[in-house]
Amino acid sequence: MTTATTRRGERQISPVFVGILAVTAVTGWATWTGFAEQPGIAVFLFVTAAWIVSLCLHEYAHARTALHGGDFTVGAKGYLTLNPLKYTHALLSIVLPVLFVIMGGIGLPGGAVFIERNRIRGRWRHSLISAAGPLTNVLFAAVCTAPFWLGALDGVPLEFRFALAFLALLQVTAALLNFLPVPGLDGYGVIEPWLSYTVKRQVEPFAPFGLLFVFALLWLPSVNGAFFDVIDSIMRALDVDDFSRYCGEAHYRFWQDTPEICSFGS
């Protein structure tokens, strides 16, 4: 029986998520129209709110795919309401990713919704559940970059163009990091069902430290350079120019001096 999954309250969009969407819409409008007295603040709020929306959708994709895969408990846990406060680790899912955006301009993979994997039958289903989250970031990146690769930037205000470019950068970095086959990340979750029992047992103790290991590696200049070379290649393939990305990040950090080249008045 799956009647528990059809209860209205378990699928009803949370007012918390609606509020985040409202902030995204209002600050997006302020960024587009130049209504805000300090445009940098509008860019900051718009990108941050949209980033949180993407984090919610990322976790929702995991949960929704798990529901269809056989885990009927995700509804009762509140995962289908898009409420970030219902996540198993709100700190990892929301707070840390936002802090990393503010400090480093990088899309930190979030986590986590707790999926009862014993309810899921079939290796392909397990892999798809893990892939659903980062694939949402890929889709979000495609939407953000659509005006660039469609050549539809005419009439798009500079500040909004900059904000979209930086938001797209966050989505691409999040997707790439998430797809790394490192224990604790979604990429490992994709391949884990296909590994032998022995390998999985050997890897399991390292899963809680996988993300820390990745960011420790990113502190190494050679690894960091190689990582962002890949990011740059992807962004250029999507026709997002370096200038827009650079200025988007510069305006996002409104508390710092904005380079003259990125001035909205130029």
From TrEMBL:
Q: Which GO terms describe its molecular function?
A: peptidase activity
Q: List the InterPro entries.
A: Metallopeptidase_M50B (IPR052348), Rip2-like (IPR044537)
Q: Name one GO biological process term.
A: proteolysis
* Family annotation (PANTHER family): ZINC METALLOPROTEASE MJ0611-RELATED, ZINC METALLOPROTEASE YWHC-RELATED
Key words, A-Z:
Cell membrane, Hydrolase, Membrane, Metal-binding, Metalloprotease, Protease, Transmembrane, Transmembrane helix, Zinc
Q: Which organism is it from?
A: Streptomyces tricolor
Q: What is this protein called?
A: Site-2 protease family protein
Primary residence = membrane
Needed cofactors, names only, are: Zn(2+)
Family per record = Belongs to the peptidase M50B family.
Kindly list the residue ranges recorded as spanning the membrane: 12-32, 38-57, 90-115, 127-150, 162-185, 205-228
Query: CDD domains from the entry?
Result: S2P-M50_like_1
Q: Which domain of life is it from?
A: Bacteria
Name its cellular compartments: Cell membrane
Q: How does it sit in the membrane?
A: Multi-pass membrane protein
